[in-house]
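Batch job 17 of 40 flagged for manual review because the log was empty.
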Amino acid sequence: MVWIQREHQKMAQHLTDAVVRRLPVPGEGNKVSYDAAVTGFGIRITAGGARSYVLRYRVRGSMRERTYTVGDAAHWRCTAARDEAKRLKLVIDQGGDPQGDLQDERDAPTMLDLTQRFEAEHLPRLRPMSRTYYPQVLKDRALPFFGAKTKVADVTYGDIDRFHRAITAEGSPYAANRYLSVLSKMFALAVRWQMCERNPCKGVERNYEAKRRRYLSGDELARLTTALVEHDDQQAANIVRLLLLTGARRGEVFALRWADLELSTGVWTKLGSTVKQKTDHIVPLSAPARQLLAEIRVAQRPLGEYVFPGRYGHGHRETINKNWLRLCQAAGLARLRIHDLRHSYASHLASAGVSLHTIGALLGHASPSTTHRYAHLFDDPLRQATEKVGAVIVAAGKPVKPALKLKRGGA
C-alpha cells in the first residue's frame, strides 16, 4: 500500500470532529483529507458541502483502488468512524473486500428480477391456461406482498408462511395453496439459477383440501342446457357444451385448434404441449360433439386457427368466468365450478358401467389413482348387477313344489 502511504505523508493530519467541521468546501468535485493515525482513512467533502468518512484500499492481489464510504459525518463521530475503518482494514488484510461485498449486495437479484426471468424462461413451457394464471398470481399478489425491490435471498420461510396465511384469511384456502405451488416452483428455479441458496417455500403447511364430489344431476343438467340456449354469448355457451360432451379441461377447449380435429373420423388430437400429462392425447368425439363442432365451423367466417378465437381474432378465448356465473344463476346451480363439468362427464360414464381404465383413457389421466376417485359411482350399476345374480341363484336353489292334484269332479 505504498501509494496510500505517500498520499498519507502529503495530506495527513489528525482528524477530530472539530477539524472535520473546519475543513473548507472545494470549489468543484470533491476532496479527501486523510487521517494521520489510520492509513487510508479520511473525510471526503463535496462541492455541495456533504461530508462523509471514507476508507481507501486495495484488495489483496489486485491493483484496483476502491473507496468504501464508512458513513455521513453528520451521523458519525470521528472516533467511531476511525474505529470502523480499523475493523474494515482487518477484514481487508484477511482477503476481504467491503466495497465489493456492498456492490454484490446491490447487484443481487430482486423479486422483480426473478419474476421476469421466471416468466421469460419457464412460462413458455406451460399449458396456455397456466401461462395466463401464473403472471396474475405473481404480479397481482406476490410482488405487492413481498416488494419488487426485495432481494430474492432475503425472502424467508416466515415471509412465505405469512403470505400463505394472508391469502387463507381472505377466505381462499384453496387459492392460497395454488399460490404457494407457483411460488415454490419459482424459488426452486431461483436456487438452480443461483439467486438464493434454498427454497423458502419448503415446509410451509398447506391448507386441508376436501375432495370434491360435485356432479350435475339429471335435473340440473336439463336446467343448464336450457340456460345455454338462452345465453347471449353463444361462444361461451358452446365452450360449456363442448366441456359437457368431452370432459376436457377448459384450458384444452380454449386452446382447441381446427388443425387438432378430424371431424370426418371424429378424433381430437390434444398435443402434449397443451395437456397436463405432457404427451399427445388422442380421444374420440361423440356424434353430438362432432355435430356441435361442425356447426361452429360453418358459422365461423373467416375460418381462423382456433375454434374459439379471442376478441378481434387475436389468439384464443382465455376465460368465461363471468359467463359461467350468469349461467349458474340462470340455471339455479349452487357451488358448481367449471371443472365440475369434467367430473360430471366421468360420473355419467361410471354410472353407465364404463371401466375406470376406459374413463382414465378418455380423460387423459396420467395415473390410475386420479381416476379412482370415481370408483364409488360404480355402486349403482354393480348393485343392480349383483341383485340380478342373487335373484337367479335364489330362484335356482328353491325346491320345486309338487303340482297340486285336482280332485275328480272338483268343486
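Reviewer: the log was empty due to a logging misconfiguration, but the result itself is present. The mean pLDDT is 84. Unflagging and moving on to job 18.
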